Amino acid sequence: MSLEFLVPGLGEAESEKIIGIMQECLSHEQETALVLKHAHWNVAGPNFIAIHEMIDPQVDDVLNMADESAERIVQLGGTALGRPDDITRFRTWPKFALEGRASTLDYLRALDEYYDVLITDERNAIKQLDDLDFVSSNIIQDHVQNLEKFQWFMRSHLICD
Amino acid sequence: MSLEFLVPGLGEAESEKIIGIMQECLSHEQETALVLKHAHWNVAGPNFIAIHEMIDPQVDDVLNMADESAERIVQLGGTALGRPDDITRFRTWPKFALEGRASTLDYLRALDEYYDVLITDERNAIKQLDDLDFVSSNIIQDHVQNLEKFQWFMRSHLICD
Amino acid sequence: MSLEFLVPGLGEAESEKIIGIMQECLSHEQETALVLKHAHWNVAGPNFIAIHEMIDPQVDDVLNMADESAERIVQLGGTALGRPDDITRFRTWPKFALEGRASTLDYLRALDEYYDVLITDERNAIKQLDDLDFVSSNIIQDHVQNLEKFQWFMRSHLICD
Amino acid sequence: MSLEFLVPGLGEAESEKIIGIMQECLSHEQETALVLKHAHWNVAGPNFIAIHEMIDPQVDDVLNMADESAERIVQLGGTALGRPDDITRFRTWPKFALEGRASTLDYLRALDEYYDVLITDERNAIKQLDDLDFVSSNIIQDHVQNLEKFQWFMRSHLICD
Amino acid sequence: MSLEFLVPGLGEAESEKIIGIMQECLSHEQETALVLKHAHWNVAGPNFIAIHEMIDPQVDDVLNMADESAERIVQLGGTALGRPDDITRFRTWPKFALEGRASTLDYLRALDEYYDVLITDERNAIKQLDDLDFVSSNIIQDHVQNLEKFQWFMRSHLICD
Amino acid sequence: MSLEFLVPGLGEAESEKIIGIMQECLSHEQETALVLKHAHWNVAGPNFIAIHEMIDPQVDDVLNMADESAERIVQLGGTALGRPDDITRFRTWPKFALEGRASTLDYLRALDEYYDVLITDERNAIKQLDDLDFVSSNIIQDHVQNLEKFQWFMRSHLICD
Amino acid sequence: MSLEFLVPGLGEAESEKIIGIMQECLSHEQETALVLKHAHWNVAGPNFIAIHEMIDPQVDDVLNMADESAERIVQLGGTALGRPDDITRFRTWPKFALEGRASTLDYLRALDEYYDVLITDERNAIKQLDDLDFVSSNIIQDHVQNLEKFQWFMRSHLICD
Amino acid sequence: MSLEFLVPGLGEAESEKIIGIMQECLSHEQETALVLKHAHWNVAGPNFIAIHEMIDPQVDDVLNMADESAERIVQLGGTALGRPDDITRFRTWPKFALEGRASTLDYLRALDEYYDVLITDERNAIKQLDDLDFVSSNIIQDHVQNLEKFQWFMRSHLICD
Amino acid sequence: MSLEFLVPGLGEAESEKIIGIMQECLSHEQETALVLKHAHWNVAGPNFIAIHEMIDPQVDDVLNMADESAERIVQLGGTALGRPDDITRFRTWPKFALEGRASTLDYLRALDEYYDVLITDERNAIKQLDDLDFVSSNIIQDHVQNLEKFQWFMRSHLICD
Amino acid sequence: MSLEFLVPGLGEAESEKIIGIMQECLSHEQETALVLKHAHWNVAGPNFIAIHEMIDPQVDDVLNMADESAERIVQLGGTALGRPDDITRFRTWPKFALEGRASTLDYLRALDEYYDVLITDERNAIKQLDDLDFVSSNIIQDHVQNLEKFQWFMRSHLICD
Amino acid sequence: MSLEFLVPGLGEAESEKIIGIMQECLSHEQETALVLKHAHWNVAGPNFIAIHEMIDPQVDDVLNMADESAERIVQLGGTALGRPDDITRFRTWPKFALEGRASTLDYLRALDEYYDVLITDERNAIKQLDDLDFVSSNIIQDHVQNLEKFQWFMRSHLICD
Amino acid sequence: MSLEFLVPGLGEAESEKIIGIMQECLSHEQETALVLKHAHWNVAGPNFIAIHEMIDPQVDDVLNMADESAERIVQLGGTALGRPDDITRFRTWPKFALEGRASTLDYLRALDEYYDVLITDERNAIKQLDDLDFVSSNIIQDHVQNLEKFQWFMRSHLICD
User: Fold this and answer.
1) Nearest CA of chain K to the CA of H34: how many Å?
2) Which of A68, C93, D71, J142 matches a 20 to 30 Å C-alpha distance to I25?
């Protein structure tokens, strides 16, 4: 940690805690962007074009989330670890298992489950951050609001058929 | 492989070869985007803002390259594998080792070496693709042209100091 | 009615008739905008995203129609009544009954029926307006042209399945 | 309620409570948009154009607020009820009584009173939501910030004359 | 008249009639643009900025109207006469008399009267054109719709004070 | 014909008549777009660049006209036939005979004659549509207004030399 | 003159002189805009489209010049007189005599002569303004620079043919 | 052929060969644009809006391809033949047979077959052009890259259902 | 204080407290904008252009912050005091002492210290505001998030050299 | 002063004189921007919205003026002093005394007086600069032209009421 | 040559050869941009405006070509020599001899001859580059495609007159 | 010289003098654009990217300056000579000698010296033009203002290191 980067009003110990929480969010968000692209490329079936195009703006949103999480980490004096091996090292959640050409509904179902874990983890992160740093908490709150909206998009395809 | 996706005029065996070459390019390009962001976040020193901002448009370019490589794979009947574990599985090149807050010149030197391997690999891919499929070859030729320009940007910081 | 607002060349009695016709169009169009949003929010099923996004530009169009109808009323010296109770007071057509999460096809079917009445009513309005005021008639003619195009969009989903 | 839409980390009972609070905000905001347009059309007097044009961007803002409230409801598994009869059914606040061509100051005074109730109700909603769901609370907090700014605009016309 | 410019399906005699009617509209509209600018520069008083800015988009609209009228004339084989002396030569309506710095309400009252004549004249022109050429009639119908809307803007300032 | 597509308020027999008229407009407009491009490519001479560039926006306009005509046909329950053989099948007007590199004036003269027939035919179509469907009539009226403006552009080059 | 509008640092007598000079520029520039449009509509011949389109941006420029001249007059306490009769009243220069459909070169020649007088007059105005008010002088200097550029455009068509 | 248009470095005989190959590409591409619009208008079924909108950007792309092919022909001294009868005269491939309102999948299947021939033909054209003119070859290579991407879009709807 | 401006739901005493806190933020933010411009103009050295340009977007951000703080004050019934003497009157923090042409690093170091106090003060303001008014607290929370990001930018230049 | 920054062709002594004059302009313009915002926030009364919005573009203009003045100072080798204490130190003109919520006319009257001194001072500065450096003189001439235009806007509200 | 700039996969000797070829292209392209501007300024005659404006976009294209050629040289480790004396030193082609005001056709004829040499030289360069470096070859291939299109534009003015 | 191009109010002898002065400015400005690009390509060192990008907008500015100078020459009846040999023929100032890859500071120092001569020469030109033609003088005054600003940018990098 770089002590000269301590945010005015935040101590060293609590900064380290925040960094730890934020690193996990960062890796999770980076993987989410990769997984969404993975689905974007391999979906197929009668709804192909609608789902293919629905995913891309969400990829942009999630890449921005990762950028915000990472920049908060370095603002607090930490290192933002963002290589593929960093993602697998910090992973505490199940991998995304589906691969190969599959129907849009199969991919949406798999992504829906993946988002269940992602949102639950980030909601837990917020609870811990609330007592540590309102700036970091606000950042992740905005991420959750956006992620829950996209999960609604996906779920709306999975009923009424 | 999905046989119903064979491009008109390309056979099954050669399509599989092209897919194999393109998958390696895809994984390499995806890792490059992650590595560039990793550098973007952790560089520091008197030239911080110039280098920090010089990297972002290149990230966008490399993400588009990965998208083109992946979409070519599925057009040929293959599966584009794009999760973090896919990147590490297909990796035949050295990892990006530098981490933690370091000076702009240190990061540029490490990225320059990383690009040496990336460009050499993609130039080799082109040689193989030239006999198999001009569309895939054209795609990677454009990638190399862009990557060599950015490498020149980086190298220009590393002399005359 | 404000007599000083009489359009040059139009008498008081005919202005009142026009205002009466236009007020019904206004209330009908305002309700249509609310109903379309209602559908936009509650549709579900495998075609969710395509239908969800197809509705929004039509909402904007219909809000502009209501604005044009209302501004014509006040140009003629009348009052444009636009609160929710005004809508229900002037309603001479059947309510939109479907509610709750339902499939895209169910909502499209219900909207198709709702548009049957709306277009029939506005076509009747045009016939009456033709003898009274060509400006008002032209306004509603443009509305019908646009509404019939959107009805075609909806109907095209309801066959061939 | 659709149980398969439960947000990860929120139970069924609390989701129903949130939906109830949000539905009231939704109906209130939908009526506000209609009431602002109603005023936009019928104001008159020497300051006509300035007030006429000041209202329209606020209509757009309030329509977006209603959209956000409604989309949150369906994300939580509820149904967003948005037809005119839904507005009057959920109404617990006084109607907007002013109608007919009236001066800009009369309309601003009536709108100012209408906003008094709207803001008080949404501030109460926030207090209840704070213990239930930070995402919903954040949404309404942003709405109140915007509504209070517009009320200041209106009030600034009502003194010093 | 240039006979080689006769519109297919329109005879020489009726084309001359249409040109005569359109030339009067052209001169009237050109003068209107000059008169609006004249007011734009010389208004004063507490509502100065709102009225000053309300006029400019109408000037642009009226200049476009004159352009459409003139281009229709030459499409029909006539000459569009557009110099200041042409305006005064074809003038059959009262001049705009108000000059010098005056209050916004004085200018609006004078413009309102000027528009009474303008709209009445163009409504008469439409009646004559309806039997001669629907394209020319549609052009002037659109002009009237726009002029009536702006007259309503002006009139709304002249009551309730 | 698809009976479930009947526009509310229009019967089956009259719909068929409208469709027949509109199909001819469609084929004529599609050919016009092809012919304009044909001229765009092969003109030559000292005015080359001005004429070459003047044609392209008209091509876009005519393609939009064909789109509107075709969409009206399917809104009425018909099939819009748009392949090259459909164009030649429905052709009741003379072909465009000029080919090979020729001067700008030669091409403009040939296009001027081609437009004579096109405009005459669409003016006849309007007369028939006026008693059948005001929406279709309004659509073709707008087309004629635009086509006559472009014919004026062309004719203006053909005199005074 | 409105004494309360005297620009700080400029006396009443010199302000009146400046206003007189600027009024003549205003009328001259307003007529120029009308004359350019007059030419824009009536030119014909093989270069039609190029000349027709070359004039329009200059009309916009000249309308802006008139606007700047007029606003300077009222800033100095004067009245900007802008109706057609004001133009003919203040006219000290020859009218634009050419009318009817004529070739592009004829119109350019006539406009070139018209600009000779216009530029000479505005250059004289600058000489007088230099000793009175640098702001007004700067305004007209910019006008002359633009007018001379457009005159060069016109002249370049009149040689080498 | 116009000999004065020979590209520097290309002889007359080879230019004629290239022109012959490019004319066939031109006619094929022009027909493709017509066929895509034909499908755009007549598709129906639950995926209507997604397929309807997916086709339009491809129409624009194909129209640009035809433009590039035609402009290359005239650059080489040939005539670009672009009327409907030219398309049918140069046609060596099967017509597009499907007509009438049909489901999205039926149209996609028919278009997929049509693209099989189109892509095969253009890939053959490239082989011949490679020895004649790299510029023409590069143009068609870009066309094939784009056409194969759109075929993948279509094919992705035809499996997994 | 203007009692008629009390926000619905906030009492007079607490409004005064909030206004006091917000006025200090306002003055601090206004000075910050002046100080950043002061640095923007006087920095020098080999990194001149990068630092010179990095500051300007932050100036815009801070001017918007001051605007939001001031508008909140008047929404609460207070007066927003914004002249230079108001800034020095409310100043409880050390002045910015560096002046004259100095190196980029000297200016960044001085600005970094200045931001230490600014961020600490605004973090304290938030703690007080949390119990008084969530709208005001949210406003300052957004300011702090932005200020901390810019401080990180500056600090990143001050290590590794 | 930094001698190495002397503009080619300007001596040291005259550069110092220019810098002294420009510094006063800079401080005066910076205060003007603060004062305009101060008014923007605290005006009230029936014309509130028109005046509130009229001020903001002028603030942007004045901030740009200050930027130009300051950059000219450093181009000449001087230091641009821009903190609040610099403004009060260089102030030779009366403070802006009005504070608290007041009517639009009161604020406009106070600003009108403030502009009287500002314009007089800058006109004096131009007289001195004319003999020293045409670049600096041109810069301030442009500022005065813009300031006088805005003063006319303000004054136009203060008569005819 | 800077050895540390060798592109990965290219040796020193071949890099020097490529640099030599590219330098000649660079000088030729730089001169072309100057020559085109020279013509842009001095053309005259009845087609003045069309030719004057046709040249400017080509100037921008050619400046971009020179930029690409130069950046490729430095990427390969060479120096891009771009001063006027460098152009004349590397010149192996005939100068552009036409000067003074001349007709549009004279200038187009002279430019057409100049392009004959330019295109022949770059086509020769491509043949040499094909065996050395596909990136450099692709760059010049794109240049030739664009230059041949512009030559067609010019030639199309030189026949049919 | 073309006498028919004499600007109204300027004699033949003085026009020739102005043309001589402006031609030297033109050649000097054209060389400056080439020299700036030359530097843009060959700079290197730790500040590479910032300096590389700082130069490009100045190139655009200087190209526009040359365009204005050249267009003024032809407006006055002269010929604008713009080929590389014209630049070297009219050169009365020292060449730009630095070549090869060199550090950013070396290039900035060489450019700073080059600008010393350029600005001194253009300041002298203004003195001569002031007595001949205010339009030409204003054009070069604007050029100097811009060139001095860019020289300040360069100089700011050369101190404090």
Assistant:
1) 26
2) A68
Alpha helices in chain F, H assignment, sequence order: 12-42, 48-75, 84-90, 104-130, 134-156
Can you tell me the distance from the alpha carbon of H146 to that of H151, in angstroms, rounded to the nearest whole number? 9
The pTM assigned to this predicted structure is 0.94
Phi, psi of E35, rounded to the nearest 5 degrees: -65, -40
- If you measure CA to CA, which chain D residue comes closest to E54? D49
Is the pLDDT assigned to residue B161 strictly greater than 70? Answer: no
Residue C160 has pLDDT above 80, yes or no: no
First to last CA, chain A: 52
What would the mean pLDDT of I105-112 be, rounded to a whole number? 97
Q: What is the DSSP string of I53-80?
A: HHHHHHHHHHHHHHHHHHHHHHHTT---
Count CB atoms within 10 A of the CB of residue A91: 15
Q: How many CB pairs under 8 A join J and L?
A: 35
Is residue A53 in some structural domain? yes
Residue G50 covered by a domain? yes
In eight-state DSSP terms, residue I3 is G
Assess if residue B75 is contained within a domain.
yes
Q: What is the pLDDT confidence band of residue B3, given thresholds at 50, 70 and 90?
A: confident
Cross-chain residue pair G46–F157, CB shorter than 8 Å:
yes
Chain H residues contacting A via beta carbons under 8 Å: 47, 50-51, 54, 104-105, 153, 156-157, 159-161
> How far apart (Å, rounded) are the C-alpha atoms in residues J21 and I161?
39
* Total of domains in chain D: 1
Flag if I160 and B50 touch (Cβ within 8 Å).
Answer: no
Q: Which residue has the tokens 């559908």?
A: C39
* pLDDT per residue as tens digits for the range A53-103: 999 999 999 999 999 999 999 999 999 999 999 999 999 999 999 999 999
**pLDDT at res. D161:** 60
Which residues constitute the domain of residue A109? Answer: 12-158
Neighbours of D, requiring at least 3 CB pairs below 8 Å, are A, C, E, I, J
- Whole-angstrom distance, CA of residue I160 vs CA of residue B102: 7
Name the band, by pLDDT with cuts 50, 70 and 90, for residue J161: low
Q: Which DSSP helix (H) or strand (E) runs through H125? A: helix H104-130
pLDDT tens for each residue of C101-156: 999 999 999 999 999 999 999 999 999 999 999 999 999 999 999 999 999 999 99
Question: Residue B43, SS3?
Answer: strand
The C-alpha atoms of residue A42 and residue B2 are separated, in whole angstroms, by 11
- Say whether H116 and B74 touch across the interface (CB within 8 A): no
How close is the nearest chain J Cα to the Cα of L148, in Å? Answer: 7
Taking any CB pair shorter than 8 Å as contact, residues of chain G touching chain F are 43-50, 52, 101-104
Query: For F49, which of K54, K105, K160 is closest by C-beta distance?
Result: K54
Tell me if L117 is assigned to some domain. yes
The amino acid at I41: W
DSSP assignment of A19-63 equals HHHHHHHHHHHHHHHHHHHHHHHHEESTTHHHHHHHHHHHHHHHH
Q: How far apart are the first and last CA of chain G?
A: 52
Q: Kindly report the CATH number assigned to the domain that includes residue A93.
A: 1.20.1260.10
Residues in chain D, total: 161
H89-122 pLDDT, tens digit per residue, is 999 999 999 999 999 999 999 999 999 999 999 9
